[in-house]
Amino acid sequence: MDLTQRFNKQVYQIAVSLIRQFDEKVSGIEDILKLTLGEPDFNTPDHVKAAGKDAIEQNFSHYTGMSGLADVREAAAFFLKQKYHVAYDYHSEVLVTIGATEAISASLLAILNPGDKVLLPAPIYPGYEPVITLAAAKPIYMDTTADGFVLTPEVLEEHLIVHGDAVKAVILNYPSNPTGVTYSKEQVKALANVLKKYPVFVISDEIYSELTYDDEHISIAEFIRDQTILINGLSKSHAMTGWRIGFIFAPKELTKEIIKVHQYLVTAASTISQKAAVHALIEGIDDGLIMKEEYRLRRDFLYEKMTALGFKVAKPSGAFYLFAKIPDHLEQDSMKFCVDLAQKAKLAVIPGVAFGKEAEGYIRLSYAASMEKLEEAMKRLTAYLEK
């Protein structure tokens, strides 16, 4: 009996992300050097691992409440207030999620109806559109390539006017994956001044907030708290991708509804991971700063090398990605370019098209890799270009 055509029809409209598809495609190449995934090459800090071990020994192996343990929610609220000057009541305005990915899914599924529109600055991380599509809503992309990958208030307002009441939400992701670009306080405030005029949700994915190199990270919740669903987590700041701890911060009226979706998606996050998260957020409140300084050195190295090789690069001011325009005399189909690079130079980077049609002709390099690997990567890229 063939049941393959009896799925939710929206499932047929989505696919595994091109990032993962491409990474798997090139992984079988012998001696391949991969700068593909956004996976920190640091290990989780020892004191956090110790807290996880203690939680196992103390039999923290049962369900927590749907929102997560009170001590981790309190710690998350403390972390956010100390770092970004935004206050949330941990009793009613904080949810512990299974990474930022589940936080995104729970938030979007809670707010979207069929036919709603969601505005996204492009290029953008490809993890939002599939959830929007599953909700039978429609993503609308705002091209930022002409403005250095920064969403301007003018472009934002133009789209809000054109699409009118159909717009349910705007998604922001900064520092950005894939570009590494982030926003100054003045830029965030300018966007907030536009958004507060419209009855829209703002889903602000700030998972890379601790990896901001130049200015202090500014959360848009500082200006439009009542509209904002703020997403963060420990994957990037504390090299805890496998622990799967994320957070949703939102006004209690919004949190009360989002928790319903969260419950039926996952029940609750891992209790052991939550106990470790308390230590990460309190004792390890500045753990990310050590990693950030190393990432800064790698960024500067890659930026200098890639620019010298003829790539046009918007210098990243956050995250750990470098987004580069393929030189005009080379293949502009980013998938073809990256496949050829992998096969001939044994160097894997992500084709820009994985981040939308606006990103065609670009490549993304992750510098969440050792300096030794980055130096070797530049040798391979240089040799490839010389041929």
TrEMBL record:
Protein's GO biological process: amino acid metabolic process
Keywords for this protein: Aminotransferase, Pyridoxal phosphate, Transferase
Record protein name field: Aminotransferase
EC number(s) given by UniProt: 2.6.1.-
Keyword Transferase: yes
Family to which this protein belongs: Belongs to the class-I pyridoxal-phosphate-dependent aminotransferase family.
Segments forming domain Aminotransferase class I/classII large: 31-381
CDD domains: AAT_like
UniProt keyword Phosphoprotein, yes or no: no
One Pfam assignment: Aminotran_1_2
Enzyme class, first EC level, given as a word: transferase
PROSITE patterns, per database record: AA_TRANSFER_CLASS_1
Native organism taxonomy: Bacteria, Bacillati, Bacillota, Bacilli, Lactobacillales
Cofactor(s) of this protein: pyridoxal 5'-phosphate
GO MF term list: pyridoxal phosphate binding; transaminase activity
